[in-house]
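Researcher: I'm preparing a figure for a lab meeting and need a structural model of a single chain. I don't have an experimental structure, so a prediction will have to do for now. The sequence is pasted below. Please return the structure as tokens so I can convert it later.
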Amino acid sequence: MMDDIDMKILHALSNDARRSVESVAEEIGLSTTPTRRRIKNLEAGGIIRRYTVDVDMEQAGYGLTVYVFMKLQSRDQTTIATFEDKIKHLPEVTACALVTGPHDYVLTMRFEDMEAYNRFLRSVLAELPGVLGIETSVVIGSVKNEVPLPH
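Model: Understood. Here is the structure written out token by token.
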């Protein structure tokens, strides 16, 4: 079970995962050895899953963000399992969530441009088995995109 100190560690690392253990320890008011032990425990417990980099996707050549809302023909276990397995193996899909409401899934994807998304939509998404409907929303501006934990 996590306590307040573990949460402080997570907040510190979510702002900058490259920070040294010493820097984190100083911020949270704990010595280095117990801070290191707590970080290792958070990793071993699967709370810290990985350390990653925050990429400016537009500068990296992926200026188009789309949210794709997908509806399946059926919600039986076979259809769901097949769909989810296919989605997990598509590198273009950066996130996929099962949602309530008129759609079954919402996918987040990044592309170079609309032409690249159109090709992907027609050749991959439209060909997925069990899909009844696809709706796309294009991001025209970003108000907030934060990685750190909410307070």
